[in-house]
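Forwarding the complex inputs:
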Amino acid sequence: MKEQTCAVVVVGNEVLSGKIHDTNSYFAARELRKAGVALKRIAVVADEVDAIAQEVRYCAERFDIVLTSGGIGPTHDDLTMEGVAAAFGRKLVADPALSALIDEHSGGRRLAARFKMANVPEGALLSHSPDLWFPTVRLDNVFILPGIPQLFEPKVVKLCAEFAASPYFMRVIYSQAGESVIAEYLNACLERFPELLLGSYPEIDNSEYRVKITLESKDRVYLEQAFDHLLQLLPREAVVKTE
Amino acid sequence: MKEQTCAVVVVGNEVLSGKIHDTNSYFAARELRKAGVALKRIAVVADEVDAIAQEVRYCAERFDIVLTSGGIGPTHDDLTMEGVAAAFGRKLVADPALSALIDEHSGGRRLAARFKMANVPEGALLSHSPDLWFPTVRLDNVFILPGIPQLFEPKVVKLCAEFAASPYFMRVIYSQAGESVIAEYLNACLERFPELLLGSYPEIDNSEYRVKITLESKDRVYLEQAFDHLLQLLPREAVVKTE
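Prediction (whole assembly, two chains):
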C-alpha cells in the first residue's frame, strides 16, 4: 500500500511575530505519525489571502491530505476560508446548514460577525462530530481546522482515526561517539537496508550520550534486522543503551 | 524605509515525524520581531534535496532574508548545503578555509565524515564569530544555520543585531466580550488606522478574559492614537485590563 502523505498549513501572524509558540503542528505531527501517515511539510503563513492560497494550492497538489490550522474565526484577520477558496478557484458562499447551526448556538443574539463563519468555499463538505458544535469544513483533500488548541486537537485525533493506516515501529540507539565517528556506520547500514528511516540527532548538553540514533520502518522484521546490523557495525564502546 | 522581510526554513524529518518540538523558529520569530524584521513565513521541510531546494528558492526570491535551520552535520541525512546549492543552480565545492578550520578543530583525528562539512555552495561566504568555531555560511540572501538550539540561537542573536532596524511597539487590550461581539469595533478601528497591525486571539480556558487584542506599529504616536480610539469604541464593560 502506498503511504499516505500530509502537509500542515498554520495560518497566523501571531506565530510569525513570536507572540505564541505554535503547538498545533507538533501535536498533528505526533498523531499523524501514530496513524502511519507521513507528514512531509509544515508551513506557517501570514494572515493574507494570497499567502494562504499559494501554500494550500502547492500542498493540495502534492500531498494526499492537507490540514489547515487557524484563521476561521469572526474577525478581520480570519482569512483561511477565503484563502482555501482562492486556492481552488472557488467562490465563498454562505452555507445554510452552517448558518442555522450558528444561529442555534448564538442563543438568539444575531451577531453579524459570527455569521462570517458561515461562509465556506463553494462545494465544501461539512463533517460533524458529537463533541464540538462547529463542524470540520473540508474542500477536496483540504481539512480546515480551528487554531485554538483545545478545538484543533480533538479534531485532529478524530481525523487521524479515519486516516489510520499501518503504524511505524521505532528502535533507538544512544551513542557516546559523535556524529563524525558514526557517520560511516550509518551509511553502511543504509546501504544494506535502503528502506530504513534512519535519523541521527546530536545533543550537546547531555552527559549520558552524544547522539540519539533512531531507526524506523513499518515492517517490524526489517526494522529488527537493520537494528541488529547497525549494533554489530558500531564500535561496542560507542553504544550507551538501546530502546 | 521599507520593512525588511524574512523567512525561516527548518530542515528536519525529526520535526515532521513529531520526535522533537521545533523551538528554533519560535526563537527566531521573537528575535526578528525585536529587531524590527517582519517574519513572513516558516516552512519545515523533509531531509530531501529537492524539498529543501524548492523551498529555499521560493523564499530567496520573495523575501530579503532567509534563515535555514538544521541539516548541516556530517551524517547521511544532512542535505541542506546540497539543497541550497541546488536552489541557486550552484555546485557544492570544498572550501579550503573551512577544511583547515575543521582540521584544526578535530585535534588531529582526520574523520572523513567531518570533512563533508567543508562542502559549501560555490560562491558562499563564511562569516566568523568569536564564540562559535564553525562559521555561518551565507549564499546570497540565505544564511545557513545549525539545527542544534545551543548553536542556532547565538547565531540568530548575532545576525539580528546586524539586521536590526526600527522595532515594533505594542499595546494590548484584554476583552471579556467574545470575538463575535468585538469584531465590528476592530474593523472600525482598522478603517481609521489602516496601517495598524491588529490581532485578536481568543482563549477558551481563561477565566479572566476571553480575547487578547494586540495593537502594533513602528510609529509609537500612531499606535497610541489607535489604542485610545479602540478603547473608546469598545463597550466599557468588555475591557478587563490593558498593557
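The first helix of chain B runs from residue 13 to 16.
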